[in-house]
Write a structure and sequence with these properties.
Strand order of the largest sheet: 13-10-12-11-15-16-14-17
Strand content: 15-25%
Number of strands: 17
Largest sheet: 8 strands, antiparallel
Radius of gyration: 21 Å
CATH architecture of the largest domain: 2-Layer Sandwich
Order of helices and strands: HEEEEHEHHHEEHEEEHEEHEHHEEEHEH
Number of domains: 2
Number of helices: 12
CATH class of the largest domain: Alpha Beta
Distance between the termini: 35 Å
Structural class: alpha+beta
Length: about 350
């Protein structure tokens, strides 16, 4: 069955929902169902809309349908010595290609390789009217509609169903090692800031409260030079469990009780005056926090530092999950939503109440 055959039932369901103003809850593999606000509506199941459409290894591009298991995409790339640049989290075995793009979440390699949005080249979208639209293309220089494609990364299905997408891929590094040093958080942040100013192939970083972990990826000469300059103990090269465990939140920190906050701040931001326990990623730019402090205080402290805070886990799905938007920005979001989903039927309220 080709992509068109898989598209028709989805298109018909959306058209019927549009006519009756019936809310739809987009359902993929369910690996990120916890992310965002709770959505009530009729299930629109997209997992049958699957399959890798094309893979051009020499062009560093892969195109796949939204319901394709993420593991299948990564297996095809691995066979060609390639990878998705942003090291997306799976969280469970059900993760899909479209869900990866809709969530817009990147893993440890975001530090060096960019975000999901940066790698997204083009999409085929099913809108809230039941229309199938195509934006962007399969090469970086094709900019027709390119911003619309990027807009979908992190939209959590609120603008449309991602039927198909093309993303940029990268070759796997020739060499990869992990270094570890013991220090406190203030020292870790200072070292990360210093190291980021150097031309070293740092592809991931983690401070876990006691130790600073650093991954180096690239050509043998570059990795060896950076290792000599940075110092620290080298993790056994056969122990490659740390970064996948961090990516998929399988470290003990993530299974602890209580609200989990995802905080984004400028990398050089000093230690934030917030109680709780945390992890630091992305050279200091992403900070995970387990804290029972009031949400308003956490968001105020983070905003003062020039960042934003998301209540990632540990909420009931009915309150504010993402950083509240200023009125002008919320109005802009509402206009964008109305353009793609005029009846407001696709994952209503998943980002913000009333959106």
């Amino acid at each position: 069955m080709d992509g068109l055959d898989h598209t028709r039932p989805l298109q018909e369901q959306v058209r019927e929902a549009f006519a009756s103003r019936t809310p739809l809850r987009i359902v993929g593999g369910g690996s990120k169902a916890f992310y965002g606000r709770q959505v009530e509506g009729q299930a629109l199941v997209v997992t049958a809309h699957a399959g890798i459409v094309s893979h051009a290894p020499t062009e560093l591009v892969i195109t796949a349908r939204g319901g394709t298991p993420l593991a299948d995409v990564e297996a095809v790339l691995a066979a060609a010595g390639q990878m998705l640049p942003f090291e997306p989290p799976h969280f469970s075995g059900g993760s899909t290609f479209g869900g990866m793009l809709a969530a817009g979440l990147a893993g440890p390699r975001r530090l060096a390789a960019g975000s999901v949005r940066d790698a997204l080249l083009g999409v085929k979208l099913l809108t809230g009217r039941g229309e199938v639209l195509t934006f962007g293309g399969q090469v970086m220089k094709n900019v027709a509609g390119y911003d619309v494609s990027r807009l979908l990364a992190g939209s959590l299905g609120s603008l449309g169903v991602i039927l198909e997408a093309s993303v940029k891929v990268l070759p796997r590094p020739a060499k990869e090692i992990t270094l570890v040093q013991t220090c406190d958080e203030t020292t870790a942040l200072a070292r990360l800031t210093q190291w980021q100013s150097q031309p070293w192939p740092i592809s991931a970083s983690l401070f876990d409260g006691e130790r600073l972990w650093l991954r180096l990826s690239g050509a043998h000469a570059g990795v060896n030079a950076a290792r000599a300059a940075i110092g620290g103990e080298v993790l056994d090269e056969h122990d490659n469990t740390l970064w996948p465990a961090l990516r998929d939140h399988r470290l003990p920190f993530f299974s602890a009780p209580g609200p989990l906050w995802r905080i984004a701040v400028p990398p050089a931001t000093p230690l934030l005056p917030l109680s709780g326990t945390g992890l630091v990623e992305w050279g200091g730019a992403q900070r995970w926090l387990r804290s029972d402090e009031p949400a308003a205080r956490i968001r105020a402290v983070v905003a003062e530092a020039g960042g934003h805070a998301t209540l990632f886990r540990g909420h009931d799905g009915t309150g504010a999950v993402f950083q509240p938007l200023p009125a002008p920005l919320l109005a802009l979001q509402q206009r964008v939503k109305a353009t793609f989903d005029p009846a407001g039927i696709l994952n209503p309220g998943v980002l913000y109440a009333g959106l």
